[in-house]
Amino acid sequence: MNFQPQLSDKNKKSFLKALFSDRTPAPPGTGYWQWTVWAIAAIVLLPVLSVIWLSMFPEENIWPHLFDTVLPDYVKTTLLLMLGVGGLSALTGVSTAWVTTMYDFPGRRIFEWALLLPFAVPAYVIAYVYTDMLEYSGWLQGGLRELFGWQTARDYWFPEIRSLGGAVLMMGLVLYPYVFMMVRATFIEQSASLRDAARTLGCTQRQVFWRISLPTARPALAVGLALVLMEALNDFGTVDYFAVRTLTAGIYDVWMNMGNIGGAAQLASVMMLFILALIGMERFSRRRQKQFSRGDRFKAFNRQKLTGKKAFFSWLICFIPLLLGFIVPVLSLSRHAMVYFDVSWTPEFFSMSWNSFMLSASAAFGTVLLGLVLAYGKRLVNRKSVQRAVAVSGLGYAMPGAVLAVGVIIPLAAFDNSIDALFESWFGVSTGLLLSGTLFAVIFAYMVRFLAVSAGSIESSLEKVTPSMDMAARSMGYSTLETLLKVHVPIIKPGVLTAALVVFVDCMKELPATLVLRPFDFDTLATHVYQFASDELLEESALSALVIVLVGIIPVILLSRSIIASRNEKREASAE
Amino acid sequence: MTRLSTLKKVVAGMVLATGASVAFSANAAEINIYSDRQAFLLKPILDAFTKETGIKVKVVFAKKGIIQRLKSEGKNSPADLLLTSNVSNLNRAVDAGVTQAVNDSVINANVPAQYRDPDGHWFGLTTRARIIYASKDRIEPGSVTRYEDLAKPEFEGRVCTRKGDHTYNIALIGSMIAAHGEAEAKAWLEGVKNNLARKPQGNDRAQVKAVKEGVCDIAVGNSYYYGKMLNNEEQRAWAESVNLIYPNQDDRGTHVNISGMTMTKSAPHRDSAIKLMRFLTEDTAQRIYAEQNFEFPVKPGVTQNKLIEGWGQFKADQVSLAEVDKHRKRAAMMVNEVGYNQ
User: What does DSSP say about strands B56-61 and B81-84: parallel, antiparallel, or unpaired?
Assistant: First the structure.
């Protein structure tokens, strides 16, 4: 255990125990929840296990070559990227969540939902848009050259957008909403009486933030950051475009150029374990913390009204991410969309929009359903095996999309081919491929990939519901299922809706798995955009890119409305 | 909860649609293609085929994982043909055991022997040369004539290429290994790396753009991009800022690669697929490739694009592509060893 010098002997034991022991029996009456959780975990783990299986049969050992050459650089770049994107997202997400929750200033009501909008912009699109603007031939540098009479790139210095810093900025701008969303929900649901108590004890607002609000929001911040970091780690489009050499780029090099998919699967598996270790350590470090809030959590608190300089400063904190992450890319895409409107406005355009919408809506529904079952099962059955099953079921998110897609193909095709062989031998008919190459495969991949998002967000909402709710409901005769549907779901509706929203938008943007798994002649907006973007001709598909963003806005607005509405309902209820 | 129930309807619809798409998947008058070339590049040709034969053609386009999909689907795969933009992808499919040999006199007559697999597993459809684009203003004509010149010390800080591990560059490095052996090829690659004006980034077109912008003076790129740039209002100026150089005309010739096709092992519509394979090697399709994508038709004697014709005839490297592709892995490792992309 040399690699964990910070753990004391006692801690070491409990760390290992937490990992390997499972002596608690299942509580009575929860047996079928336990089995359901195991079954779901087993199915969604199949693709991940397939990748691990692939990693057992590499063409040859890639590690000596990688260690000697590019691996140190890949690892360094990857860590810097994670650090940068994580830092930027945490800073932006927490500060915007804090000011929109605690203060009242002009525009606050709009920022409450508008700050989610950058999330609808795919990272590869925003990267493209900013490169177009900031590179040598972009209008900005062109204008500067004209102004100062510079002739070539050698006459002056300008920050290079295609760089690690550029990638950090681009990803931070579109990923911070994960943190904003999760942390803000906690700030709102946090017991106001805690903060009130702190204030009466003489804390300033700033001290309340650092001593009370931020520590209590830590689980939510951790969930949000974990999602941000996994997205950053698995991104290929942006880092490829910016020529930033991360591990993901290395995985594709080993796979495509060295023709060694087993080696690529090894790299992907190691990367996944690394993420797992990170998440595990974070959870372990707060294993003794539990927070619940009583009925007063929806007590309306008075936002402090800001005026003058302070109001302007708060407004600026919210406006800058919105401007850079949403307004600028949308305006730029709109301009291109207008120029290429005639090429883009075709019948296919509508079918692509419909395809994207249908797939994303179905996957969001399924993913939220599974997330709900997992989170509730985990709550009901306090067994290590169930807790672990829930934890590993989110692993699909920790793998690059194209690698995961291969992991999806393998079990699905194996299933199809065994059914086919069975029917062939029994009835002499071939059933062909039942699931592979259908929309089922695509939706399944989405669910495997984004289950971590929905389960995480539902879990963190469910965690805050006090167990006395369950006890009351059960003692009054509700079954476990009834308790879930009639007690918990109404209470955690904002969390459930948030999960649905996030998964929907993520699916709208999803690319690598959709590309490989889709049926013949089937395009989504994202695959259409990619066809052109991969040739660096994004302008010609700007309309589709714009629609990905705009369709993503609809659920953002609808859901944030209903989240606010359900919150108000509760506030009124608790006020009565 | 009304929103949730709408979702339920949507899901039910999806399930039905999925079932229906499965039920109608076995239609005789159709061909299914897996392709790593963008569908919009293939569309005009496939439309022409459907118009002539009445056979429908359906496509899945993906760059990564398509061979794994074929392999996993096994004998039940619906795909008949695999179209790819590089000989190495064709060979990888053959290595994965998902292809079958085709011995058809029409196809064999149309595709010269050096552009098809000796065992008949794959056939080239078009060729493209990996050429040098040199600044009209800053590079003296005649000072760069060979790939080897890219490593000359006098060009330090003046060369732009896309990333070293892109398949196009991997193949070029493979051809250098074939011509000079590993040690010399590596020294050359190191030299090119030292001459780079910036960290490799962007596609081939972006390199020519960089020459126009003065970031560098010499770029490496595929030949058809020249035509594409001339045809694009915004990019014409980039193309006009450079001279085309077909390297190594006085010795082994310019490195060419192919886009090509292979029939899958499972091919459920074999007869129709052979019709399409023939069609792709015949004059109509070959001309569309040349006219719309500015690639060189593989069939001898097919009229070339007027723009392409203007570029003049050139001598292509006669080494077999199978030989070049043997060095693929070594080339990929070399890119890492010299730290080309860093």
Answer: unpaired
Report the CATH architecture of B29-127+257-303.
Answer: 3-Layer(aba) Sandwich (3.40)
- Sequence length of chain A is 576
Per domain, the residue ranges of chain B are 29-127+257-303, 129-255+316-337
Using CA atoms, how far residue B89 sits from A387, A409, B63, B92, in Å, is 43, 19, 10, 5
- Overall fold of domain B129-255+316-337: D-Maltodextrin-Binding Protein; domain 2 (3.40.190)
The encoded tokens of residue A109 equal: 């009501």
Joined together, the tokens standing for residue A526 give 């994202």
Residue in B11, B328, B329 nearest the CB of A365 = B11
CA distance B97 to B262: 12
Same fold, B29-127+257-303 and B129-255+316-337: yes
CA atoms within 13 A on the CB side of A155: 13
Q: In 3D, which of A376, A362, A553 has the Cα closest to residue A455?
A: A376
Question: Which domains, ranges and CATH numbers included, belong to chain A?
Answer: 346-576 (1.10.3720.10)
- C-beta of residue A379 within 8 angstroms of C-beta of residue A18: no
The Cα-based distances of B295 to A301, A353, B43, B130, B320 in angstroms read 68, 33, 16, 12, 19
Number of H helices, E strands in chain A: 29, 2
CA distance linking residue B209 with residue A162, whole number of Å: 15
Beta bridge partners of B84: B260
**Of A65, A154, A256, which has the smallest distance from its Cβ to B333's Cβ?**
A65
B25 touching chain A per CB within 8 A: yes
Measured from the Cβ of residue B328, the count of other Cβ atoms closer than 10 Å reads 24
User: For residue B24, what are its two tokens?
Assistant: 């109608």
Structure tokens at B93: 């499919």
Strand partners, A117: none
Nearest CA in chain B to A59: B329
B3 vs A contacts (CB less than 8 Å) = 558, 562
Q: Which of A135, A241, A514, A520 to mutate to test the interface with B (most CBs of B within 10 A)?
A: A520
Are A527 and A458 a contacting pair, CB within 8 Å? no
Alpha carbon of B109: minimum distance to chain A alpha carbons (Å): 31
- List B residues 160-219 in contact with A (Cβ-Cβ < 8 A): 163, 165, 167, 170, 199-203, 205-206, 209-210, 213-215
Question: Is B336 within 8 Å of A562 when comparing Cβ atoms?
Answer: no
A290: helix, strand or coil: coil
Which residue, chain included where needed, has tokens 């790939």? B147
Q: Which ranges of A428-524 does DSSP label H, i.e. alpha helix?
A: 439-463, 467-475, 480-482, 489-491, 493-509, 512-517
ipTM at complex level:
0.81
pTM of the predicted structure, to 2 decimals: 0.85
What tokens does B78 get? Answer: 């619906």
Q: Token pair for residue A32? A: 């079928």
β-bridge partners, B99: B264
User: Tens of pLDDT along chain B (342 residues)?
Assistant: 444 455 455 555 544 444 444 444 444 589 999 998 887 788 899 999 999 999 999 999 988 889 999 999 999 999 999 999 888 899 999 999 999 999 999 999 999 988 899 899 999 999 999 999 999 999 999 999 999 999 999 999 999 999 998 989 999 999 999 999 999 999 999 999 999 999 898 889 999 999 998 889 999 999 999 988 988 888 899 999 999 999 999 999 999 999 999 999 999 999 999 999 999 999 999 999 888 888 899 998 887 777 766 676 889 898 888 889 899 989 999 999 999 988
A516:B65 CB<8 A: yes
In chain B, which residue ranges form alpha helices assigned H by DSSP?
Answer: 2-23, 39-53, 66-73, 87-95, 105-110, 167-180, 182-195, 204-212, 224-230, 236-240, 270-281, 283-293, 306-310, 321-326, 328-337
